[in-house]
Amino acid sequence: MKKFLIILHDLGAGGAEKMMTRLAGALVDAGNDVTLLLLTGGGINAACLDPRVKTVELQSPRSARAVPALARFLRANRFDAQLAVLTHVNVVAIAAAALSGTLARLHVSERNAFSHDKHVNPAFTVRLAYWAAPLLYRLIPNPVICVSKGVAQDLVDTTIARRQDVTIADNPVLDDDFYKKRPGRPSHRWLLEKSDAVVVAVGRLARQKGFDTLITAIAALPTTGVRLIIFGEGALRTQLLEQARALGLADRVDLPGYTADPLAEVAAADCFVLSSRFEGSPNALVEALATGTPVVATRCPHGPAEILINGLVAPLVDVDDAVALAQAIVLQLGTPRNFKRHTRLEAAARFANTRAVQTYLTAMLGSAAS
């Protein structure tokens, strides 16, 4: 049995937080002792955490101010491997590990396209973290764990990080028996009582997700018999609704907010669309593939092209090309639903818990059997 520590800011609604709750549980399933440490505390994904995972909350008012408390915790508790997640947390963890003498056991993780993600949050401390991180990544003894080949290459191409400074591990997105599970009942009325084809998207209502392009694509479809549901919340809600109204789509586009079971909604849809401008390794796309529902995605940096094997699994279109996106949606809606269904399930299987956790064990211990 190995002892692992996962370090996060909190367990908020983000994809990284959700994946770390899944990774913690998968590591326990593999026979390990796992502690999840939150620099602050709480968050909606706490409800998803396996009760066998130990939790520690430092209750720091800000991540940067957690360095002394984290250093004391690392000094007092010995772990075989320590994993920090997200750039600003990585910087805090590196400082604390250096102070506690545990740097040799620390691993850090990048979850998104670094060159794009660094522009998202304008806060001074976050921008400072993105400036410092690449330099620190060259100095720490263990390579940065990236969620896709594209994320790793982006870090090498756009910062001073070298190829030997990065490695790759897959997100544990799915339960091992995902292909045996029957989907739940959808909650949206358009999916419960279908009168038209329904396209579904899932994600934060933020510029990164490209939902403005998706709405434009729906307007460009040659038929009015298609509806769009975007599950998620975010700052662009009002803007996206106004766009839909301006395009005459007020009765064909709905933004119902978060859903408790996105897989149930996607499984009942006729097509899932990932319209992002950038990603790391989009979990929503993997989850959609796991339902067997036809999908369309942008060839954004990074992740979709790897997951969809450069378009062999499902169509890929250029970022912000609403016309191409509309054409791909028409193609999927006009193709028998079960066409390539097995291929989609096979592509998703790479991200099942047991398979994915082995990539983390290899990255953190040097060997999955260590």
From TrEMBL:
Residues 14-173 form the Glycosyltransferase subfamily 4-like N-terminal domain. Pfam families: Glyco_trans_1_4, Glyco_transf_4. One of its GO terms (molecular function) is glycosyltransferase activity. PANTHER family: GLYCOSYLTRANSFERASE. This is Glycosyltransferase.
